[in-house]
Write a structure and sequence with these properties.
alpha+beta; Jelly Rolls; four-stranded antiparallel sheet; elongated; cNMP-bd_dom
């Protein structure tokens, strides 16, 4: 069975409005979510209320808090819709149960987890090793649609910089591009 078939046949379709949360940091949530449409952000809130954007999630992606749905903990981050979204939720335990009986499904799950691990590794490298301007340029190159869907504040929080720093980077980039 294919991942997409499992979601369609056994999942629950849910609709979210702009700004609505699918789950919040500290919640218990046992589900894996397939994003059919919309654009989402996953973010952390510090104890002081400072937001850091973990990732942006586009259609045809899968998202979950593994600490909550697999390790029986609570969600370490929040997941919110940046525009109206349609998702299909499926209990992670059901996916695990089915993957133990279906080698093709188990392989798809393994590939999904490897893709998530590589995405996380790339994000960590960029965040820890690249200067903010280079992270901004890479984000522009890799995800141009982000700049029409997310606020400047969200982009700054993703890059780990202030809005003022982002404005300065944008100005420098625009000056450099106009000189080419």
């Amino acid at each position: 069975m294919k991942f997409s078939d499992l979601f369609r046949e056994h999942g629950t379709v849910e609709h979210y409005t702009k700004g609505q949360h699918i789950f919040k940091q500290g919640d218990k949530n046992e589900n894996l979510y397939f994003i059919q449409s919309g654009f989402l952000k996953a973010y952390y809130l510090s104890s002081e209320g400072k937001e850091q954007v973990k990732s942006f999630i586009s259609p045809n992606s899968v998202m979950a808090s593994l600490l909550s749905c697999y390790a029986n903990g609570v969600c370490s981050f929040s997941l919110a819709s940046l525009e109206p979204a349609t998702v299909i939720k499926l209990p992670f335990s059901y996916l695990l149960q089915q993957s133990q009986q279906d080698l093709a499904l188990a392989n798809q799950l393994q590939n999904l987890l490897l893709e998530l691990a590589m995405k996380k590794e790339k994000r960590e490298y960029e965040f820890l090793c690249l200067p903010a301007e280079q992270r901004y340029l890479q984000l522009q190159n890799d995800t141009p649609e982000l700049f029409t869907k997310a606020t400047q504040n969200d982009i700054a929080h993703y890059l780990g910089i202030t809005n003022v720093a982002l404005s300065r980077i944008k100005k420098r980039v625009n000056v450099n591009n106009s000189q080419l």
